[in-house]
Amino acid sequence: MASFGYNQNLENVQHLLGSIVLDEDEGIKSSTGDLENQQKVADIMDKVLRSCQQFISSINSDKSDVINRVIVNYQSYSYIVSYDYKKKLIYIVKTASID
User: Fold this and answer.
1) What are the counts of helices (DSSP H) followed by strands (DSSP E) for the chain?
2) How far apart are CA 36 and CA 17, in angstroms?
């Protein structure tokens, strides 16, 4: 899949196994490595990010608080999901866990 230049900064992530850049409206804009064309992972991580934001909004009276990043850790790898509010893009990276 074409990268459209989104992955330039993602390539600097230590222990990177793969990445996805999602557009709010158009879906996957780019994907690399283990996450190449992984629409199911993209959908699930998008839901995780949105669910966390809904949870924070429900318990916090300051509605201006927003989630910047969610990390899901597994024994051998992690997903890091972040949202760029200016560009309206969701970045998902899969990194190897280092002991």
Assistant:
1) 1, 5
2) 10
Other C-beta atoms lying within 10 Å of the C-beta of residue 48: 16
Task: Count structural domains, the chain.
Answer: 1
Q: Tell me if 85 is assigned to some domain.
A: yes
Supply 58's token pair: 């429900």
pLDDT tens for the chain, 99 residues long, are 333 344 556 667 778 899 999 987 778 999 999 999 999 999 999 899 888 888 888 887 776 777 788 999 999 999 999 888 888 889 999 999 876
CATH code for position 63: 3.30.450.30
CB contact at 8 A, 71 and 36: no
Residue 62: give the domain boundaries: 10-96
Q: Name beta bridge partners: 49.
A: none
